[in-house]
């Protein structure tokens, strides 16, 4: 017990003298031993590495898991050294909802069968995402975390010891200056030599640790390459899944979409009590979409098309998507990829526009055009 009290008193005395020395240095009342330039540069480089590694680590966590609650849950499981339960990704959840909806709507209906197909591919996208998150966490986040929670803590501890050794050294220097008697000077010189030895030893230990930052950069560079490779593989896999989905949907569109749209249009026309418009024919068909009453309405008009003047603010540029041969003199033939000027006139059917190309003018079907802003 007596030894502990003495040690406590000694430690308290050392802490007090260090505090006095530190305060006097801040007030400019005491000299401070400066570290050599090389060590100062190593310390600055280490601080820079720590700060940016921490920012990159935090932002990567946000990228991989945008949900703050989920990140907190992962942190708690990690601190408790427990395995985190497998979490369903948003894409997988969406896919499951689509497939559940298809069961309600009827898997044999066009909409239901398409929901099943899209839902399956959403699940595949979610699986690719989970694999990417797992790979990135192991190959990129873990090394960054190990540096921040392992190597950096060791470096910080040795730097604090170095600062204490420097304060002890400066305290001994101050005592030597204040010593008047030869006996006091001899004791102060002995203490100074011991303090200088401890300081030099600690400076060397700290320098070796700080020089290891270069190895840390090399390791993090390798991890960065692995992260980019995982990211590239993930996006390539997603691109392939979406392309496969597009092909599968395109192959089914010929049977599914026209029938579904025809039923929808017929139902809409009966419910409204009006005559439904004819559906637009695609390129390669015998004729484009043209409502039955549109031609008669224009032909019965006392105005000729050539005499129609478009409003100044109503004209727009349009790009022709497909070749089109005019059915009569009231229409304008089109060539794919050419640009024409289009506008509408009061009372004109919405499936048609007036097109102009130089001195030529005539009706053009909207389905063959891409309107430009």
List keywords for this structure.
elongated, 5-stranded antiparallel β-sheet, alpha+beta, 373 residues
Largest sheet: spatial strand order: 4-3-2-1-5
- Poorly predicted tracts of residues: 256-287, 289-313
- Kindly provide the radius of gyration, computed on alpha-carbon positions and rounded to a whole number of angstroms: 40 Å
Work out the strand percent: 5-15%
Tally the beta strands: 5
Secondary-structure element string = HHHHHHHHEEEEE
Mean pLDDT: 81
How helix-rich are the residues, as a percent range? Answer: 55-70%
First-last Cα distance:
89 Å
- Principal-axes shape call: elongated
Characterize the biggest β-sheet: 5 strands, antiparallel
The total of helices stands at 8
Structural class: alpha+beta
Characterise this structure.
The protein is α+β, with helices and mostly antiparallel strands and 373 residues long. 66% of the residues lie in helices and 7% in strands. Strands 4-3-2-1-5 form a five-stranded antiparallel beta sheet, with no helix packed on it. α2 runs antiparallel to α5, α4 packs antiparallel against α5 and α5 (110-178) runs antiparallel to α6. It starts with a helix and ends with a strand. Residues 256-287 and 289-313 have low confidence and may be disordered.
């Amino acid at each position: 017990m007596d030894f502990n009290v003495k040690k406590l008193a000694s430690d308290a005395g050392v802490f007090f003298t260090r505090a006095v020395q530190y305060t006097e240095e801040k007030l400019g009342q005491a000299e401070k031993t400066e570290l050599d330039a090389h060590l100062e540069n190593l310390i600055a480089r280490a601080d820079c590495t720590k700060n940016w590694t921490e920012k990159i680590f935090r932002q990567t966590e946000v990228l991989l898991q945008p949900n703050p609650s989920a990140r907190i849950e992962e942190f708690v499981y990690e601190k408790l050294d427990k395995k985190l339960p497998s979490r369903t990704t948003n894409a997988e959840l969406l896919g499951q909802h689509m497939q559940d909806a298809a069961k309600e709507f009827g898997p044999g209906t066009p909409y239901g069968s398409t929901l099943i197909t899209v839902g399956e591919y959403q699940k595949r996208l979610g699986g690719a995402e989970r694999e990417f998150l797992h790979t990135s966490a192991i190959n990129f986040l873990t090394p960054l975390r190990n540096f921040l929670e392992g190597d950096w803590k060791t470096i910080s501890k040795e730097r604090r010891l170095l600062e204490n050794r420097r304060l002890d050294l400066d305290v001994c220097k101050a005592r030597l200056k204040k010593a008047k008697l030869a006996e006091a000077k001899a004791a102060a010189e002995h203490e100074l030599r011991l303090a200088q030895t401890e300081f030099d030893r600690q400076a060397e230990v700290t320098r070796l640790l700080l020089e290891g930052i270069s190895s840390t950069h090399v390791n993090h560079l390798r991890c960065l390459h692995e992260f980019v490779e995982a990211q590239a593989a993930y996006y390539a896999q997603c691109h392939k899944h979406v392309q496969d989905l597009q092909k599968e949907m395109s192959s089914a569109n010929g049977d599914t979409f026209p029938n579904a749209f025809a039923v929808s249009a017929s139902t809409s026309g009966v419910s409204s009590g009006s005559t439904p418009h004819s559906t637009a024919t695609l390129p390669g068909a015998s004729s484009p979409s043209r409502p039955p009453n549109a031609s008669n309405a224009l032909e019965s008009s006392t105005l000729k098309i050539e005499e129609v003047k478009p409003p100044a603010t109503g004209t727009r540029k349009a790009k022709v998507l497909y070749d089109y041969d005019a059915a009569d003199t009231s229409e304008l033939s089109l060539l794919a990829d050419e640009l024409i000027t289009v506008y509408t006139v009061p009372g004109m059917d919405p499936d048609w526009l007036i097109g102009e190309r130089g001195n030529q003018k005539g009706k053009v079907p909207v389905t063959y055009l891409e309107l430009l802003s």
